[in-house]
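Run: sequence + heme C -> complex structure.
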Amino acid sequence: MSKRISRNLWNIILTVVAICGNICLPAPAFSQSDIDIEFRGKDQIVNSLSLRDLANATPAISLKIFEIHEKKERIYKAYPARTLFDKAFGKEWGKAEEIVFISMDGYQASIPVTKFLSHDAYFAFAHDDDSPFTMTNLLQNNEVVPLGPLYLIWDNMKSKVLLEDGASDMPYQVKSIELATFATRFPNLSPPAKASAEAQHGFLHFRKYCMACHTINGEGGGKAPELNYPTSVTEYIKPEYLTRWIENPSSIRLNTLMPGLAQEIPDRANVTKEIIAYLKAMSTTKRSPKRQDIH
Ligand code: HEC
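>> structure
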């Protein structure tokens, strides 16, 4: 082999090694304990705590739950939510109306405070067996998703009500926790006052099952497409297909990341109908999204 060829060969090898170093190697592991979780009151950050701070402030427990995303039992290491709220917000948090959880992937769950007062929630920060803090999300086309820094779980083994709630109140990748009043925080999500009772019921279902991922008039989660502005899904999707999108999305789009409305939800067909009535009502009140709520 001539000198020139061997030099070229060597350059190629170096280039391949360099590219591979960028692409093939896993990104340098960042330490979850360095991420700060923001606690927000009205318009301001009231506290900012790292996982290390949380570990120092609250004793952890091991909790077995029925993992709705995986449809099997799982044990997590976790902190009791009410204790953590007491530490981060002070006791006043119990007087708020909603708690909004903002996740790194754009998910934005808004959960009534009453649910935290009547059921036991926990913030998981690790699997009990210390395996990587990820999960294979059956509801999201088996995507492997990181769960940290915090993952909101419920002591659901003995609670039919919690199991029926499905996965919508179980945000993972939680990085910010905010006390809020729904109507102030999401002023453009409510149906017009003259909307039918069916649409008003649908609004409550939409809050519970859809808005963590989707926006209406720019308000809600940033994980999935806007459904109302500038064109409502009720205007371009035929009614029977809209029902299928909600109940069985993969019967429309293969490998879609949208989970269908949970089978466990009581009176599911009626819930779907009411959600569609809400979406129709919203198509008469379009507002240009400001998107200031999407962090
Ligand atoms: C976990 C997140 C998540 C939840 C919860 C969710 N969706 Fe979706 N949805 C998605 C994603 C992601 C897409 C885009 C899917 C695709 O294109 O494959 C989508 C797509 C849609 C579409 C099709 C929009 C279009 O123009 O193609 C409709 C309609 C829809 N969702 C309605 C709903 C309704 C109503 C609910 C509540 C019952 C809901 N979604 C709950 C994630 C979600």
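>> summary
Residues 168, 209-210, 212-214, 223-225, 227, 233, 237, 242, 245-246, 253, 256-259, 261, 275 surround heme C (CB under 6 Å). The radius of gyration is 22 Å.
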